[in-house]
Amino acid sequence: MKTLKKITILILLLAINVSAFSQCAMCKAVVESDLASGGTTAKGINNGILYLMAFPYILVIVVGYFFYKNYKKKQAK
What we know:
This protein has 77 residues and is mostly helical. It has one domain (2-76). The chain has helices at 2-36, 41-76.
């Protein structure tokens, strides 16, 4: 039963991942056409990607800090 669950989750994740690849080509085409005409869309998209990329790292650091703090507190008792 557990392997069936794992296989189902894996198939769902792969299905979701396939649709994500199609968006990259669209973004690339928009940025390339905008750069050819002298626009600044590429800079905005790049900043947006960096903005979205930073939050998971910040979240992991904050959660890790609280786990570490809680672990130290339990060690002191």
